[in-house]
Write a structure and sequence with these properties.
five-stranded antiparallel beta sheet, alpha+beta, Thiol Ester Dehydrase, Chain A, 125 residues
């Protein structure tokens, strides 16, 4: 698994009504939902691994430890960054942070595990 420590990526989104706590049924305010922020962090981690896994491999989410620190309004742009901090066998630990125009929105750690895609999907049966 030729994964490079320090690999990082940044992804960006504009918050829409579909991204709010109301839409995700995780609250009753029209701001960026925590589950959507987590998805953005996961997206950044996947992009950071782009092209580094061997054919037939993928990474799957294992653990998310996130502090959602500030609300983000519909129409605002959120930028999330993931940096690969540690490789422990198949486990990959990313440090993540997100900002909007007002400042830090959230931060934490995301752990992903490298798996053989076919074997992983076979476990469903």
């Amino acid at each position: 698994m030729p994964v490079r420590h320090g690999s990082s990526a940044t992804v960006e989104m504009t918050v829409t009504d579909a991204d709010t706590a109301i839409s995700f049924r995780s609250g009753d305010v029209p701001v960026l939902a925590t589950p959507r922020l987590v998805a953005l962090f996961e997206e950044a981690a996947v992009v950071a691994l782009g092209g580094q896994l061997t054919a037939g491999q993928t990474s799957v989410g294992m653990r998310v430890q996130v502090d959602h620190l500030a609300p983000t309004a519909v129409g605002s742009t959120v930028t999330a960054e993931a940096t690969l901090e540690r490789v422990d066998g198949r486990r990959l630990l990313f440090t993540v942070a997100a900002h909007d125009p007002r400042g830090l929105v959230g931060a934490g750690k995301v752990t992903r595990v490298v798996v053989d895609t076919e074997h992983f999907l076979d476990r469903l049966n």
